[in-house]
Predict the structure.
Amino acid sequence: MTLPYENIEKLSFFSLKDKKSVKKFISEFVFFALIFFVALVPLPFGANVPWVWSLSFLYTIILILLFSAKELLEEKPLSQFAASRLTLPAIFCGMVIIWAWLQNITDFLGIAANPIWILSEPFLGKELSRSITIDSFETSESVIKIITSIFIFFLSACYSIDEKKAKTFSNSFVIFTSLYSAYGLIVFLGGFYSILWFEKIYYKNDLTSTFINRNNFATYAGLGLIISFLMFAQIMQKYAILGHSFRQVIIRIMARDTYRFGIAVIGMLLNASALLLTHSRAGALSTLAGLVVAVFCLRFSKLMPEKFTRWIAIFAAIGVILIFSLSGEDIVQRFDLFDRDLNWRTSLYMQVWEGIKTAPLTGYGFGTFKEGIRLFSVPNTAWATWSFAHNTYLELAFTIGILGAAVLLTGIGIIIFHIMRGVKNRRRCQIYPIMGLAVATLIGMHSLFDFSVQIPAVGWSFSFLLGVAWAQSWSSQKK
């Protein structure tokens, strides 16, 4: 007698063996395609050009569709684990996306429409389509960018449930940032004054690599420095737990882990040098804050013996002094301009706050800061055209309203909260939640003074790393 399950293979479109091959092929393809994306996205000016946003959105949609097709063939889908634990953050982020879409709707709630449309009608001599946003196109582009961030985070989180893939992701990121920092150092020290094959217009005396703005690249290099430092600590911890002396640990590392150790050390040197040569004060201080959090977490989690922590701290201090003596003179000089910069920042923040008070709930439309801020002029800042608020939190409140900003930040905060729990509770792979907390510190602090996370190459890299850290924050027993 033939049992029903014995005929399943014959009745299916392709054999079970073929299904395994298809699943493996799609899984590996999406995995490496995601790495490829993260590697190339900083190349076209930090991805801060509209055509990159559209292509990246389509690219990540294709990856999500392929990944979904693979998941349908799995008995235990990775997405099921991630989705079940990301429900609350997904709801919060989804609410913001829906709200941004509602901001684009003509005559939505009538009275909620932005007054700029009513004020402009007499001058133009015709009735305009009234919506909350003052620039429908900019709002649509901002929605595309945030959805792309969500896709990157989700794919990164799903794959990083596997410790080996999480390790590949973090190691790859160190290599990418090191290459961009190396390119920036060659261009800067060679005096080429160019970005790729284009003539450099802004920040000619600062290192920007493939980015336009020095502060944006400082954040990107800072991410690379933190990850390479934790990669170095992870290698040290691997051999320190065996009870060897510091000298024996170094000998064993050079004998067995030379490749990864070399990548970590070179990554720290290249990213630290490039970061200092950007002459970004906020970038340097925010990265330092991230490194302090990383060291504190390493000590708190007892990831390695105290004597090793001391040695790492000593070598790190020596490295910082050497790098700073070679490339940090100009950044010290920039601190002399602190009072001047504080004056214009204070005036700009006052200008933004006036705008927030005028439309506290509705905002002026997601991504419309440049257009909206023109309605609120302050003498001290009238000399410039402001594309960003130089404070991401204030800009969010200005564009999507105070409530919308609070909802979005709460969704991100829930993810970071679970990463903090991972630092406390995990016994294996603690290095990844520590990584997540350190890079969140860097991004969170720099967002108080600048707009680096709003540049796609930085924001998407942050989403990528946050996905790795979140996935490895859960106990293996719960996966």
